[in-house]
Amino acid sequence: MPDTKTDTTTADATATPPAPPAPGHLPLAVFKELEIVRDPKNLFHQTIEQVLIAAELVGLAHHQQLMLAQPKNEIMVHFPVLMDDGHHDLFKGYRVQHNNVLGPYKGGIRYHPHVSLDHIKALAVLMTMKCSLVRIPFGGAKGGVKCNPRELSTDELMRLTRRFCSAISNQIGPDYDIPAPDVGTNAQIMAWFADTYAQMTPEHNRADTQRVVTGKPVEMGGSVGRNKATGQGLVYVLQEMLDELEIDLGSMKFSLIGFGNVGGWTARLLGELGASLVAVLDHTGAIHNEKGIDPEALSEHTAKTGGVDGFAESQAVEENEFYGIPVDVFIPAALEQMITPQKAKLIEAKVVVEGANAPTTPEGDAVLRQRGIEILPAILCNAGGVTVSYFEWVQNKSSVYWPADEVDRRLKRHMVLAARRVKLARIKYECDMRTASYGAALEQIGKVYDLSGVFP
Ligand code: GLU
Questions:
Q1: Which of 54, 60, 68, 288 has the fewest CB atoms found within 10 Å of its own CB?
Q2: pTM attached to this predicted model
């Protein structure tokens, strides 16, 4: 439950962000103790280092730091799938269960050609942090299959999903580990996943086993509002921060990397509040219109053509030009590690609002801070998705379904309280917003570990 002392703060966090503590000897000592050979380009190592810096700031016990520096379980499976032309391909899949001290493991499943074990481990750590920060009773996990979903037919995607689910079915469960959509997966894939799990566990009530995944279609036990949830959560966080950032929504200009689920919903929701989308970059190209891009018209265009390229009411621009377009808010809402130091030098924005998971490299982060650009970190800004996943799970468990306004009201509460928690932690620990978010998440995990102790 939210900490009411934290919840009511209205502290001003606008002062120039102090630099985070330099990567000191402590994270390195934990790396050494665990025999991790630190590679600065490895997303898992980067993530663990950031977590350990914050852990030291909040005074997390050493054994708790050790436990958080490695996932509890790393599951790797290989499974064959019948392709449409009659041959079989072998696929590699992962499920990493990072931590479950706060509740069942929770996190999405990604279908992407670059899926790798360390990448999934990093994303699982971020899920632990996210769930703790928004105070939902879940731990962190992540899964994925190395594949290119754009090159698979609907039937191939269905067979791949069913085989992957069957390969990990004895490692997940409605009260143990609950997958969800992520990059390259969607509600239809969750529907196949839930159905396969029900077939694999005939001894259980079918309706109850639906809880094994969230992000399902509404007709199959999904929650209203889950589809827009990540974008909506980001908008609630941004609204909570507007005063400190001295930004007015009515005159705000923003640009977006990515126009998928998160980018598309964020654009439409901010558009409804009067903000103006001026530039978008995706895998097909970059577009710009200083007078504003209509998010609805762009959604129709991307649904038809698969990307933003060729959108009529805009000019095509080069990638580097896109980064330099002056905006109030720059929103990366695509893949990880896109804001490198080179890109960070180009960005002309007051604030970077991270819609994607880990979109900024540590060096890119340092450049942005040096240039006085504020960063609202991903574990805060994109936690709306898993929060509504939690609502879906609660609704499945109780068989009572909430209307859209109820989902929005509850989501807003979780997001606003999390944003206030981060502002407070930033003042308390005199650090940047990212370290403060990890700190606020770790405070909760530390309290629970202190209470539960370590078995035996
Ligand atoms: N994949 C989403 C995330 O990274 C949602 C996870 C979930 O709903 O469990 O937060």
A1: 288
A2: 0.93
